[in-house]
Amino acid sequence: MPKKSKQNNSKARDFPQHFVFLIIILLFLATNITFAFHLQREIVPDEHAHIRLTEAFDTTLGIPGETEEILMGGNVIEGNPFLYYWILARFRNFVKWIFPSITNERLFLVSRAFNSFLSAGTLFVIYLLARAVIKKPWLTLLPSFIMANLQTFFMVSAGINYDNLNNLLCAIAIYLIIKIVKQDQQAFWLNSFGLAIVLGGLAGLTKKNVTPAHCNYLFIWLFYVIKNKPAKVGLNF
Asked: Is the same domain home to 173 and 64?
């Protein structure tokens, strides 16, 4: 059978799973955003601190200086990861540019919705990861379905919290590791480059607590390079 015909048949077989996953994502977004719009402030852990830091980043394209309000709240900008706050602040700037008269309360709710979409991205990557390691097609839906229904994940997704970006980046890093050990030489270098970018963002700019996980990813990558250098990696040392 021609290669193109096999690819078309594979896509046709995968369509039911893709359709069901799309329903899972849409239901998650609908319920999570609705929940986010009705959830009281500061129910999500550290949400007040996260929004206060984000508001500081709203005022500049760079890294803002320390303010009395931030310091009095027990937070420090200098020397701490800032990627989540910077990205959310740029999104909020864009929303305010489109809707100049938007109120602070509505902007707060839109910021929560942005976090819901970050978590939807995490579910998408988990689905891709499951398809890479699970052979039975319908079981590939199970990990993302379970994650979407975890109370902690659902609650944090509805609030303003840097864990939503961190979860997405961690999922991408794990997915790239899986792709590295399963693909050919060209895909190896492409996915290694992507992994380096993701780990760079995770290690230095999002959350310090996941640094041990970064070390594990790097050790796996290094082990794979040393073990497979003649066959797949194409290195001469």
From this structure: no
> Within this chain, do residues 66 and 97 fall inside the same structural domain, yes or no?
yes
* Last-in-domain residue among 118, 139, 159: 159
What local confidence, expressed as pLDDT, does residue 71 receive? Answer: 74
**Residue 109 near residue 36 (C-beta atoms within 8 A):** yes
Q: How many residues does the chain have?
A: 237
Q: Cα–Cα distance between 61 and 86 in angstroms, integer?
A: 8
Residue 163 CA from chain centroid, whole number: 9
Query: Consecutive 10-residue runs of the chain (237 residues): their mean pLDDT?
Result: 51 77 96 95 87 89 79 74 92 95 94 97 95 88 95 95 92 89 72 83 80 83 77 52
User: Can you tell me the distance from the alpha carbon of 224 to that of 73, in angstroms, rounded to the nearest whole number?
Assistant: 45
Q: Based on the domain organization, do 147 and 181 belong to the same domain?
A: no
> Count of domains in the chain?
2
With H, G, I as helix, E, B as strand and everything else as coil, classify residue 58.
coil
Q: Give start and end residues of each alpha helix (H) in the chain.
A: 3-38, 47-57, 68-72, 83-98, 104-133, 142-148, 151-157, 163-182, 185-201, 211-228
